Each structure stands twice: as structure tokens, then as C-alpha cells.
Amino acid sequence: MKKTLKDLTTEEKLRLICGKDCWHTCDFDGKLPFVRVTDASMGVRMPVNPESWDGVKPSVSYPSLQMLANTWDLATVRTYAECVADDCLDYGADILLGPGVNIKRSPLCGRNFEYLSEDPYLAGVMAREYVSALQSEGAGACIKHFCCNNLECNRLQQSSEADERTLREIYYKPFEIACEAKPVSLISSYNRINGVLGSEYKAGYDVLRREYGFDGLIMSDWDAVRNRTAAAKAGCDLEMPYHPEHYEALLADYKAGKISEEAVDACAQRVLDLVYKCKQLQVGKKRKYTQQERIEFTQKAEEEGIVLLKNDGVLPLKKGQRLSMCGWFARPCAYNRKKPELICGGGSGWVERITPMFDMLEIMQKEYGGTIRFEPAFSEDGVDSSFMVPGNAVDNAAESDVNIVFAGTGAHLESEGGDKQKLELYSAPVQTILDTAAVNKNTVVVLFAGSPVDMREWIDEVAAVVYVGFPGERGGEAIANVLTGKVNPSGKLSETFPLAYEDTPAAKGYTDTKVTRYEEGLDVGYRYYDTYGVPVLFPFGFGLSYSEFEYCNLLLKTAGDGLEVNFEIENRSDIDGKEVAQVYVRAMSSYVYRPYKELKGFAKTLVKAGKSEKVTVRLDRRAFEYWSVANGCWAVEDGVYEIIAGASVADERLRAKIKIKDGNAIVL
Q: What's the 3-state SS for 114-174?
């Protein structure tokens, strides 16, 4: 029988909102059902001992969320989340601590591999689909981290200072969109927002509940609560993990009248609601996919997300070409001094994979055939070692038709709890790229990384760059399929690759040990580069294909209080391909500042060789809104707006204009 607050003593209610241990809510020896939570990013990270921090059980390792975002494919997002839900059911997890929707304000943030995009619309839409699919298959979602958790440096003290409009349009927006899927829970951030701890951020919590319709539970990030009473009064329903001293202080404050019974009941009721919501989600649910099917899906997800950044015609590889390969990242299973799992992000997002780490030499010999010369050249931390000889890699490259260098970063550089110090690769892989490219113009770089990499030193010397992020279980097979042309790459960047960190707006704002001022305001990511004409290495939304696409026949139609954007994409090649078309809106006559243009819609479409496909993207009222600080509400200005369809933020293909008058759109 369902328990209510009347069935609990005051002490039990106070204890209920303080958690049981590291991963569970209190059950009072079976009096209540409990909820078990699990870390997540590249899959389920279930501890061996669910009452402590020690060890994790092997689980399906998926491509990191940044690679999922690079798919721009909502069907892939849904299947990804459904597979992860099955993993949760396997391990008895009621709630997945994800997805992460924090904006990628700085390319140095150590957790960017866990986040979806620099753009709030793209991050929000993908999170909404993820949450919807995850919960439909029996696992509760916990979107994170609310909000402005955009750096890891000194995250327990750092205050992110942003104005109200910037918060509304950039940092709240992905949470607002994700809340449409009714997530059962949400996690607060470690950092402060304008001086207030994330666990005590009542102003933001009120927006979530009163405006976004969020009716779930708000829990703290682990060890993010300093004062349990203050956090509870602000609306933080559940502290995790359990700290006995915090409970004792809360009990004392209650007895002293420092927190009302009404405030305690509000938090306790939401914990009870969460428990029963999660159990209801699981009723009648069975595994949708076998574990083997989930492992196989990791290859499909990676293939959809791999981004071809440069190609001078060397890819796809042609049969009969002599190949050489080098770089520790090609064979982490064979040349590891530590753990082969280093090719991933670190911290709570790290997953103990089920299958052995990939061996690209073995996979490529199987898929491509013939003899492939290989030399590790450098170690996982980017330095030479006694058995890794860069000179041999140069000799091999000189004798080959195509040379492939596997390089990148990993958990030792990109991890929760710390930020990257630079965007450049270590010197050993850079030198290997330069030296092998000097003797073989057909040098391909396969790049493993969870965030942008500074390539200025070598990008002009190589023929191709394939960005593969942090792949999952079957990532090696996916990479081989793209290199050999069995798969036509269709991923596009969900974040800008700047030329250098110094070019980013985040690098220009004030920062000290305690405060980060978001001086760029709305001009985050492409909004800054696009508006001010700042050159970048690769723009937001960019990605090459083995196909060639043309856009034509743009037609706008009004649809209620929104707009229907119709156009055609033609594949002018002899290979089937998928194209990610993006729709941006530009306010041309605004009385308030607006970035030059902003993403408001997208569609990924399969176009057969020599054929055309019609694409329709629908824009609602929100595509034209801005946050009016003067009136404290969303507003749509009368005026002229340009609708831009393109292959990236910098590759504008089609344009048309509309005029909005008295809230009604008129096609010009």
C-alpha cells in the first residue's frame, strides 16, 4: 500500500530528505520502497557495492554524449536512451543521473564530453528526446546540472555571474525544453549562480516549477550541500549522499524553528512522489534490446556521429592501396601502460566496458585486407617510450600510399573535477603527424577527443581529419567503416572548433579563483564568431560527406502562430548520403540586441544518389522570442526576420524573409 507523509514521523521525514547512503533513498527497513540512482554519461556506471563509492560493474559503453549530439538525429537519440534504460533495468537502477545539458561555454571545460552542445536549442531538443525515450522504457531521468556548471575548476566555490536575459535564453533554455518530457528529477550544480550556491538557488527553482512545469524532484549533486536547512528552504528536496552531521544539524534547526514543517513536508512529499513515480515507470517493462543488440547499436550511434572535418579526396580508402598506421590510439588494447579505457572521459561519466578495447590494426586488416604497416610511435600520454619509435612510423609512411595517424586525448586530460589546460595535442603526436605528413601527402588523422582540438600546427599538412570523439564498445568497427566507405559520414559538429582558445569569448571575460563573469552575455559559441566575424577552424554545424548536396526551392508557409519552412535537398553524387539541414532565424530590425542568427530547427535526411528529398522544418512562436528584461517575460517584436537554411552556421544555402506584425507572420 502506498505510504503518505502521515505514515512518517517528523524525524523520518527529515531523514528521508537526506538520503540513505551514496546511491539510495531511505526505506526505513522496508517501510518505504527505495530509489537507486546510478552515474551516467557513456552508459550506466553502477558501483560494485551500491552502498559505497568503490568499484564499478562492467556495462555497455556508448559513444559519449558529445558524439550523440553530433548525430543531429533524434531517432538515434531515442534508441540510445532506450538501450541505456535497459541497462538500468539490468542493474536495478531506478534513476539515471543524466543527460547533461550544460552549455559548452568554454572548450576547456573538463566535462564537455558529457554535454550536448554550445547551442541551447540543440541541447534542449536532444535532451527532451532522450528523457522521453528513457522514461518510456522504465528508467527515470535526472537532467543536470542546474545551472551554469560550465567549468570544473574550483567548482565547489566558483560563482558564475550572468544577467537574467542570458540565463533565460542560453543557460536555462535547454532545461526548459527538456522539461517538456516531464523528467522525474533534476540535479543542482556545484557552482554558485550570481553568488548563490546551486543547491540553494531558489530563484532558478521557482522558474523551473512555476514557469517550465517541472513537477519532479530536485536533488543535490554529490557533496554540493553546505547547509541542509538553507537548501531545503530553497527547494532542494533531496541531499545526496547522506551526511550524518547534516541530518543532525537539520533536526536541530527544525526543533529551533529555523525551518517550518511545511518546508520539510514539501521536500519529503516530492521524495515520496519520486519513489512511486519510478516504480510506476517500471510496471510491465521488459528489456527492449538484448545486451548484444545494445553493444551492436553503439556502432550505429558512432557511425551517425563521426564528423569528417577535412578530406582532400584521400577518403574513402581505395582497395589495393598500401596503408601505414601509427599512434597508440590505434591499438590501446595492445600498447597500454595503464588502462585501455583511457580513450574516454573521466570521472562519474567513465564506464567499465564489457568488450575488449578495439584494435584498429586487427579491424582494418579484416575490413580492408592486405598488409598494413604499424608503429605505435607515442604512448597514451603523448610521449615517446623505449618501445615506441616515431622514426619507424615515418619510414612506414614513406613506403605507403596512405598513412593514418591515430591521435587524441582521453580520461587523463578530459575529466570531471578538472579542466583542460590547453586545446593542443601533446608534442609527440603532433610531431608524428608533421613528420609522417612530410613524407606522405595522403596522411589522414583520426582524432579521439571529447572537445575541440587546436590543429593550427598541422591541419594544412594533412589530407583528411576524421573526428571520432570518445567511441563506445564497437567504435573501432564504426571508424573502419567510415574510412573504407562502407558508411558515408553524416555527423556534424554540435560545437564550434575555434582556431585557438584565445579566440573564444570565454577567454576574454573576467575570471579569478571565485568568480567567472559571463561578460559575453548571449554571444556564446557560434553566436559570437558569427556576429563579430571571428574566423574559426570549423564552424558549428559543420561536417563533410562523401556525397555532394544542393539546396533549392525554399518555400515558407504560415502555420497558426508559427512558420513552416520547406525546401529540397538534392544529392549530386553517386553515393547515398544523409544531410543535416539547419534552419536559423535572423532578426533584422530589432530594438534589443540579438546575435546575428540563431539555430531554431534542423532535420537529418537520407537522400539517395542522384535523387532529391523534400525537407520540412516547423518553427513555433519561440523561434522568434527574446527575453524582455523590461517586462519580465518572453516577447516577439514586430519587424522583419530572415529565415536561413544551411549546411552549417557558416554555409548559408537558402534565404527568405517574413514580417511579423501584431504577432502574425507574413511571408514577404
A: HECCCCHHHHHHHHHHHHHHHHHCCCEEEEEEECCCCCCCCCCCCEEECCHHHHHHHHCHH
Catalytic residue from among 221, 237, 435, 454: 221
**Residue spans of beta strands (DSSP E) within 513-646:** 515-517, 536-538, 549-559, 562-571, 577-587, 598-607, 612-619, 626-628, 633-635, 639-646
When pLDDT is averaged across residues 464-478 and rounded to a whole number, the result is 97
Q: Per the structure block, which three cell numbers stand in for 420? A: 583542460
- C-alpha to C-alpha distance for 83 and 351, rounded to whole angstroms: 15
Q: In 369-499, where do the E strands start and end?
A: 372-375, 402-408, 443-448, 464-467, 497-498
> What would the pLDDT profile of 214-236 be if each residue is shown by its tens digit?
999 999 999 999 999 999 999 99
Helix (H) or strand (E) holding 480: helix 475-484
- pTM here? 0.97
Pairing of the two strands 549-559 and 562-571: antiparallel
Q: What is the pLDDT of residues 55-92, one digit of tens each?
A: 789 999 999 999 999 999 999 999 999 999 999 999 99
Q: Which amino acid is at 398?
A: A
| % of the chain beyond a pLDDT of 90 | 90
Q: Which three cell numbers stand for residue 183?
A: 523528467
Span 568-608, pLDDT tens digits = 999 999 999 999 999 999 999 999 999 999 999 999 999 99
pLDDT score at 382: 65
pLDDT mean over 329-346: 73
What distance in Å separates the CA atoms of residue 243 and residue 226, rounded to the nearest whole number? 11
Nearest to 492 by CA among 560, 543, 417: 543
Query: Could you give the 3-state DSSP secondary structure of residue 287?
Result: coil
Q: Long-range contacts: 614-617, Cβ < 8 Å, 24+? A: 614/566, 614/567, 614/568, 615/566, 615/567, 615/568, 615/569, 615/581, 616/564, 616/565, 616/566, 617/564, 617/565, 617/581, 617/583, 617/645
Strands 639-646 and 652-661: antiparallel
Residue partners of 468: CB distance under 8 A and separation at least 6: 67, 302, 306, 446, 447, 448, 475, 478, 479
Mean pLDDT of the 512-528 span: 97
662 counts as catalytic: no
Angle between helix 291-305 and helix 74-91 axes, rounded to 10 deg:
150
Q: Are 630 and 564 in contact (CB under 8 A)?
A: no
Distances (CA, A) of 47 to 8, 24, 88, 140, 278: 30, 12, 12, 18, 20
Which DSSP string do the residues of 617-653 spell out, in sequence order? Answer: EEE-GGGG-EEETTTTEEE--SEEEEEEEESSSS-EE
| CB-facing half-sphere around the CA of 400: CA atoms within 13 A | 31
For residue 192, what is the enclosing H or E element?
A: strand 192-193
Residues 6+ apart with CB under 8 A from 244: none
Nearest to 468 by CA among 520, 555, 405: 405
